[in-house]
Design a protein that fits this description.
With about 180 residues, this protein is mainly alpha-helical. The chain is built from eleven helices and no strands. Helices cover about 80% and strands about 0% of the residues.
């Protein structure tokens, strides 16, 4: 697309009356402004769309990407937290927030995202395994082993933790402990 094509697209899409704008129209309009090089208008259009479609993860995700591109750390974090508030059961959103903290050098806040998730539902196996994976990746397998040992003691009837512990033992070469 040339800049003129984007401007033509803006003219066409802008002509759609507000009451007839779907989420997709807001995204198309934002993409057209982006292509035309008007990034402040991208954020304005997406914010307007979110006012109309408050629970739209799609609009909020595109807005988050716009904030990322602007390197607006405060807005990125706020947007990701709002997405989590809308879909608290979607683990990918927690991963996105944790990854963002990590990329900005705040490993402790990244870890706290998972810690808060685990604390919100202590017996949830998926949450515990996310925390284990985070610990293994960031703090090393020995720390992850300690965490899994704690979990297998705390939840002796949950086979998932014992299996994860065995897999971690195999991964680190401790075959005797894995059996």
């Amino acid at each position: 697309f040339s800049e003129k094509k984007y401007k033509d697209s803006i003219d066409i899409v802008s002509g759609i009356k507000d009451e007839n704008r779907s989420k997709d129209v807001y995204i198309l309009l934002a993409a057209s402004y982006y292509g035309a090089g008007n990034k402040s208008k991208v954020i304005e259009v997406l914010t307007e769309g979110i006012q109309r479609y408050n629970k739209s993860i799609q609009l909020r995700s595109v807005l988050t990407k716009a904030y990322l591109e602007e390197e607006n750390e405060e807005a990125v974090i706020k947007s990701l937290k709002e997405i989590i508030d809308i879909e608290p059961d979607n683990l990918a959103h927690y991963g996105a927030l944790s990854n963002y903290y990590e990329k900005t050098g705040n490993l402790e806040k990244a870890k706290n995202v998972y810690r808060d998730l685990v604390n919100s539902a202590p017996g949830n196996e998926d949450y515990q395994l996310l925390m284990t994976n985070f610990i293994a990746t960031k703090s090393g397998n020995n720390e992850a082993k300690k965490y899994l040992e704690k979990l297998t003691t705390q939840y002796p009837n949950v086979d998932t933790y014992a299996i994860a512990q065995s897999q971690l033992e195999l991964k680190t070469g401790n075959d005797e402990e894995a059996v």
